[in-house]
Amino acid sequence: MKTIYLVSSLFLLLFSFTLKAELWTVEKRVNPKYPLKAIKSNIEGCVKLQFFINSDGIPQYIEPIKSSAGIFEAPAVKALSNWRYKPTESNDNKLPQRQTVVLSFSMSPDVDFNNTCDAQMTVESNDIDLFKQHRLSMPIDATSFLSLQKSIAKIITVLSDDELPHFMQSYSALLSKQSSLNKEDNGALLNAINGLDYFQFIALANVEHVANNALPNSGNENESNDPIANAEQFPLIDIEEFIHTWEISDLPISMDSELYDEISYRLLDVELLINEDGTAKLLDTCRAVSKEIKNALEESIAEWKITKKVTSTNTVRFIFSVPAPREDGAYVDCDADWRY
After folding, report:
1. 328 CB-contact burial (10 Å; exposed 0-12 / middle 13-18 / buried 19+)
2. Per the database record, which ranges form the TonB C-terminal domain (predicted)?
3. Are 113 and 163 part of one and the same domain?
């Protein structure tokens, strides 16, 4: 109880910059979520991240370069991805800039981490386009699976939303090959990958790249081309990926108050189809609901026009928790065979 009280009453997030934002200043700052496991273990710490501010003022290519505890890295990256910057008077052309920031997680006001997370940016280009080019042309270190994973993480940092799924499919395909090898040959794939760059890695995997929003053709000419009917063909993404891609501050659901009464205690999750243009459609509800509720959901969701945060987007599926007034003891009530 004492630890939780400290978090709720004394929780501070301390931010310090190792580079002054000569070209950009912070316009919107989002605090990272303190990991529950760290709270229970009374762990405090910090993370130093390197990143670019692109011409739209959005942090891009975010990477931890030093942390006092790995548990803080994911929430730090997630929080920084939601920060927004505005150009200074000297940056009329909105030139991208590479920066670092330290995010500190503390449950008391007087914690001083000193140089715990002191680290220099990696020695790479300060030009955002060249940075990506250099990353994708770097030789992959596959002398071990650990070094391979580190190389993969560096590549993933700079991939676009269109490039990432294809790369991960390629990576999965190569890992599947590895798992099918005999024990005595378990280093064969690593040897084949070691020293390749991103493009050579993709070619080795030989996984066909399906364009945005394209549905696999089963060969059945009578198969429906309706996205709703073929919804299972689209990936089901998690909340972290959804927040990274779309601005979700205003996704209203409008229905009569008596309908809200039906979902204020037994909370409702629904499956949505999010089209690449930001429109959405209701696919399914996690349990049977009245026709009136379903109609209200469909009408509200059909009016959404979600703003994208990234240049290119794909059609995806997403589990959405319907906002409603919550009664004491409210819980999410879904059928046993629901998506989870």
Report:
1. exposed
2. 19-114
3. no
Please report, for residues 59, 68, 107, 121, 133, the alpha-carbon distance to residue 117 in angstroms, rounded to integers and kept in the order given.
20, 6, 17, 12, 28
With b for 16 or more beta-carbon neighbours within 10 A and e for fewer, the 159-185 pattern comes to bebebebbbebbbeebeeebeeeeeee
**C-beta separation of 118 from 48 below 8 A:** yes
Q: What is the pLDDT of residue 9?
A: 29
How high is the pLDDT of residue 83? Answer: 92
HSE value, Cβ hemisphere, 13 Å, CA-based, for 289:
24
Residues 181 and 266 in one domain: no
103/74 Cα distance (integer angstroms): 12
Lowest model confidence (mean pLDDT) among 2-11, 161-170, 262-271 = 2-11
User: Which residue range(s) make up the domain with 137?
Assistant: 132-205
Residue 338 neighbours by CB under 8 Å, 6+ apart: 269, 286, 287
Res. 19 pLDDT band, cuts 50 70 90? very low
106/139 same-domain check = no
Q: Could you say which of 93, 122, 151 is where a domain stops?
A: 122
CA distance 173 to 164: 14
Count of C-beta atoms within a 10 Å radius of residue 144: 12
Pair 56, 21: CB distance under 8 Å: no
Q: How many CA atoms lie within 13 A of 162 on its CB side?
A: 11
